[in-house]
Amino acid sequence: MPGPRSRDCESPPEVPTLFRFLVFVAIIAGIVFGGMVALVTFVQPVQREMVEIVPPEKLQPR
What we know:
Elements: H1 17-42, H2 56-59
C-alpha cells in the first residue's frame, strides 16, 4: 500500500503568496467600493447654511 503522498493522489499546487495577497487586496477594495456605492445611493445629506468669519487682516494683501 502506497504512502499518503502517492503519484495517484497528488495535492494541488500551492497558490503563490503574491497572488493570494492581490486577491485579498482586491476583495477588500471591492468591499470598500460597495460600501461607498451604498452610501451614495441610500444616504441623503442634510444641507445647512455655514458662516465663516474672516478677520480683516487676512483680506488685506501683504
